Amino acid sequence: MQTKLKKHLKTTELFFKGSSFYRGVVLTIAIVLPLVVLNLLDLFAFAPAIALGTFLNAPSDVPGSLRRKINGTLISVAITVIVTFLVLVTKPVFIVLILTIAVLSFLISLISVYGFRASLISFSGLLAIVLALAVSKPDLNSIIIHVGFLGIGGFWYLLVSLLSYWIFPKKDDDQLLSDTLALTGQYLKIRAKLLTKPNKREKFSKKALIIQTQISEKHETLRELLLEGRKRSGRSFSNERRLLIFISLIDIFELALANTIDYSKIDTLFGLQKQHLSPFKKLNKELGNHLIKLSELLIKKGELPNIKHINKITDNTEKAIEAYVSEISLPQARDGAITMRNLQDYQKQLFQEVKAIRRVLTKVKNNAKASLVVQESKQFLTSQDYRFNILLQHFSLESPMLRHALRLTVAIVFGFVFGSLLDLKNAYWIILTIIVIMRPNYGLTKERSKNRIIGTIIGAMIATAIILITKNITVYMVLAVLSLTFAFSLIQQSYKIGAAFITLHIVFVYALIEPNAFAVIQFRVIDTAIGATIAVLANYLILPSWEYKNLDSVILNVITANSNYLRATKNLYHNKEANTLRYKVSRKEAFIAMSNLNAAFQRLTQDPKSKQKQSVLIYDIVTLNHTILSATASIGRYILNHKTTPASEEFDTIIKDITTTLNQSAKTLDSNKQIVVSEEKEIQQAHQTLQKHYAKLSDKRDNQIKAGQTLIDTKTLLNLQEAHLISNQLLWLKTLSTNLTKVTTKYHSVFN
């Protein structure tokens, strides 16, 4: 009980010190301050428009480079001003108003094709339609004044946002780094469970894929924040510290991916001796917990957690290897012992990266500088293409974004007409619910609808209880402000709780101006339920975009990225100095492509069961690509961190064959054309040569043992490890790539 209380208190402290709450406070101040000041100056008539302008232009202010933040807000201001003017001007004529809403909804929705920030600008534009419907302006002069002050509100929010950025310039950086540390820690803990729990591997693998996607998304935002910031303001101690943590996080992520073991081989090798793997599992778990504890230190002050326990478990892994060798005896124990050595080597590297993060958090100024130069850093940034041609490419019913824009437009127009014909009070709340809930994906729309309704009901119940207890206007004002702050703070973390606070805010604002607050609560719940129902039905019935129909390009991209990554790894083996940068860029691209495929598969699982066509086949494609990525990362990571022998011709031959096989899978998806593959006999000979090399090293070591040389020298151990890893991973990659070709051929025949 006491432990749970401490955990809740820690979570609460982290929330109040985090960037989400800070952003909520900033937005609340930006909205409330003009209301208070203009009221004191007896100019309150202009205050609501400024408050609306502030509220409308806040969504696009998300973590990212300062340049994109400013440009995004300015574009948002322009769109919201134009949209509000057009809606207010056409409002007197119902038919013209409907046509205006339809055209604006469609065009604004399409802005989302330009990425995440653009989708939030699009949301602001759609929200402007709703709030314009809530405003009554009788003539052109009053409309112009309202729109003018709306624009002032947008510029006011930009000013407040820049001021808050100046006060705490690294708030978003620290929050994102903290979140990424925590997610990486969770990922390591899940990977630990995969080692010794064969019956639950599929369950844990799916969890790992979800977290991988989340980590990759965080990495992309951090690249923009840290590398763009470094390019703009140069190298500073605080920037270098954060960049060093980020680099260590990328290395940890790659290490974890690189250690995706052939678990069937693990089960065969260790059988009933799995107890020898327990220290390795425990070490991964402890390293994960340690990262989670370190993540908290980026948000709140505290001392570094003790690492003595981790040092002790690390020593236990050495004892586990010795115990295994003693129990099984050499040479029978060699494969298992080398597998454990590779696992130990991986965990030692993990531990070194964790120690590196600890050193950075101690703020020691003699830490190693992040060596990434500006020219190199550009290659790691994913640039967003803003050409008009991108928009034109989506003018096809094959485009999910165009289908979503049409679907959303129909839902908005229907919702407004439906509410108007029934003469519902505040019918625009129906449109608001549709805009907030509706997503291109059916499953996410359904989930958000459920959470929105539940959150609204919870908020309505709490508001009802408070209104029954008190009729105090001051209480309503305080609660309206507080609920607004918490709504903005929690909407991204928990949509259900955020929706509850939004409802509380709306009810208390109306309670200040409406004598019958219970009527407001009643209509709020009804309109939300109607809007949510329309959103779900529209997603299901109007030009539905089921995920299985959109997977071809995503799968093609990940296969191509994996093939490029494998070629970059081959080049790295030949010359580290010349090819390290290209290797890391290819690695980033492969990770992003895999993250996109993971996300697409998660969306597929959210679709109705009847629309999850061939989900088992698609899951096979996901897992095969993921395992290919992991096996490639395993080879690359070993090459980067060890002094290796020269790459052999056999290595090049097998890599060429594997990339050719991957390209065949890509061609099958792209055009169903077959390409020339290498001679199987040549590949078998190359594999045999590599295996003979490992066997020769093993025989040499056996002779040393027979001669009484029981202690293995470092060079021999590293040569054995290298030969074992390269030979086994290439053989595994060959099998995986062949299986992928079979699965993609079957996939193509089913869906085409």
Secondary-structure blueprint:
Layout: H1 2-17, H2 19-40, H3 47-56, H4 66-90, H5 94-110, H6 116-133, H7 140-167, H8 171-196, H9 201-233, H10 237-258, H11 263-270, H12 278-297, H13 308-328, H14 334-361, H15 374-378, H16 388-393, H17 400-421, H18 428-437, H19 442-469, H20 473-490, H21 495-513, H22 517-541, H23 551-574, H24 576-606, H25 615-641, H26 649-670, H27 680-706, H28 714-751
Helix pairs in contact: 2-3, 2-7, 2-20, 3-7, 4-5, 4-6, 4-7, 5-6, 5-17, 6-18, 8-9, 8-10, 8-12, 9-10, 9-24, 10-14, 10-25, 12-13, 12-14, 13-14, 14-28, 17-18, 17-22, 18-22, 19-21, 19-22, 20-21, 21-22, 23-24, 23-25, 23-26, 24-25, 25-28, 26-27, 26-28, 27-28
Give short descriptive properties of this protein:
mainly alpha; Methane Monooxygenase Hydroxylase, Chain G, domain 1; 0% strand
Q: Give the oligomer, counting copies of the same chain as homo and different chains as hetero.
A: single chain
Structural class: mainly alpha
**Tell me, what is the CATH class of the largest domain?**
Mainly Alpha
Order of H and E elements: HHHHHHHHHHHHHHHHHHHHHHHHHHHH
Percent strand? under 5%
What is the correct CATH architecture of the largest domain?
A: Up-down Bundle
Tell me the major beta sheet: none
**Total individual domains:** 4
Output the radius of gyration.
Answer: 29 Å
Report how far apart the termini are: 57 Å
Uncertain parts: 365-381
CATH superfamily of the largest domain: Phosphate transport system protein phou homolog 2, domain 2
Shape: elongated
- Binned, the helix content reads over 70%
Find the count of extended strands (DSSP E, 2+ residues): 0
Average pLDDT: 81
Predict the CATH topology of the largest domain.
Answer: Methane Monooxygenase Hydroxylase, Chain G, domain 1
The total of helices stands at 28
